[in-house]
Amino acid sequence: KESASAAPPKPPPTRWAAAAAAGAPQSFWKDAMPANDAIDKQILKLFVPAMLNFLIIPLVGAVDVFWVGRMGSAVSLAAQGAANQVFQSAFWIISFMPSVIAPVVAKAAASGDTEEVQRAVGEAIFVAAFVGLLGMLLLTGMQDRCLSIVGIVAGTPTAVEAGPYIGWRALTFIPAIISTVGFAAFRGTLDVTTPMKITVAAQMINIVLDPLLIFGYGAIKAMGVAGAAIATSISEVTSGILYINAMIAKKIVTFRSMIRVPSMKQLGKLMLGGAAVQLRSIAQNITFIAVMRAILTMDETGTAAAAHTVSAQMFQLGVIAILALSTLAAILIPQRMNRTGADAEAGKLEAKKMADRLLVWGLLLGLFLGSLQACSLPLLQFFTPLENVQEMARMPVLIGAVQMPLNGLVFVLEGLMQGHQAFLRLAGGMFVSTALMLGALKMWGGSLEGVWFCFFVFNISRLFFGLRHHLVDGPLAPNKLRPKNNGSTPASGGGSGTLAAASTSTVMTSDDAASKSRDEVRKSRDEELLEAEIECVGESSSSTEAAECTEDWIEANKEEDARGSKDEGGGAAAAVADKTQDKKKSGGGGGLLNAILGGGNKGKSTGDGYVIYNFPKKD
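^ thats the sequence. predicted structure below, dont judge the formating
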């Protein structure tokens, strides 16, 4: 019995398998270190445009702060910062779709399922638009109550300037949330260049309109802080339109999929993941609102709030690069684990290598950005001409710089958890971290420096939960990737003419069950064919009759073999092919009977992966 064709070559063993076979423990740290290899090149290729895309928004935000700061009023600067915080908190609480949809799109795109990509993105846009409408109505109808959350009292000068800002920004909830879904969809397909182009085009409108609408020009009336909100709103509408056109052009979504109401099953999945994301976002924004409230109630002049706005803006310019790395973690992990043609174990090992490398990148990037921020203190005068605000902002900027490496690890770890769709774990960790942050604010939140110091408590808690998921109980935890060693067992044949097989030891992986199944098929089919051939020889009067008898047995079992090939990933045919190749490598000749006969009888191939041997009855 011989194979008609060679078995497909097996993939080379992973470093982990090779180490285990050699009896050495595996260390993932070596793979984690940047080596200018294919992993680093892919990260860099995606990171640069993603960072530029994320960087554009805080840069434009810095332009907003710059022009509002040129008004020479600490109250105006505090109003813009507080109102923007309220809008951002409300927006990110209801904007759960991007976090839910990015890993889904990455998984579908990696497996080449275009229809699944279109369905998922279309449903996300439908749900996001509906949720955006609710957000717009709530924020428009509850302006005073929303502003009171951060400590702005109705009728005060700060409230007078913050109210119109909230009103204008609320009108753009729907296009803004559609833009975030579009950005997540493009990220899921590993396209970060198109979102960058759209963001540049949209934000250029904001840059041009800011000074015109804030200070006025010619027939355009000066509108102050409200003018900054109008400029931002126009740019967000432009961005939403450009994203829809780009997604349709690139077949990421169709018009029909955007207006199709999701089934209850799919809606349930979206809302379940969305609920967990919302819980995390609620917890996170409770922290930010509590911080803003503590600062606004610190002094009535608005100096502390203005200094915090400037410090936060400088901090965001650095942390946005780490956020870009975090979004890469959310898409590269499902992409590595679900690539077309990759088996589950190989996908996990590749994902583990990518995850560890991203963590090292996050730490190194945090160290670099922290050093850069510490050296940027002279830039404070760019944001505000008020010297008392500049002086108060110096220490928060330095505290933020020290926290940057910590943020590098935290952001990437949470991005990895998003890639695994561990949204409930993220939410639970964020609630605990928020509780600790609120307790820290009560103890040390009496000064601006104390408030910024409290972020150490917040981020160290987040780091603990992220590391636990990555190293202990997550899908890529080392203990879940450790292979098992299978002991040596001799392979035995059957009947009077059995072949002695050498005892071998193999490295067991997650494919052990499939391998064991194939081994059983091989042994079973080998023994059955040998017994059939021996029986045919015993009952036949000539070699021709024996050959015909054996051929009849083969024909009778063809259907079963085909079924086994389909169900068992190769079944009997693959088992025969693999075993024959093993025998050829070990010099065993071609097949069981050929080995029994000493290799001198070549036989006739039937074209089915079997060989009919003609030999005298006495043999």
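The first strand starts at residue 484 and ends at 489.
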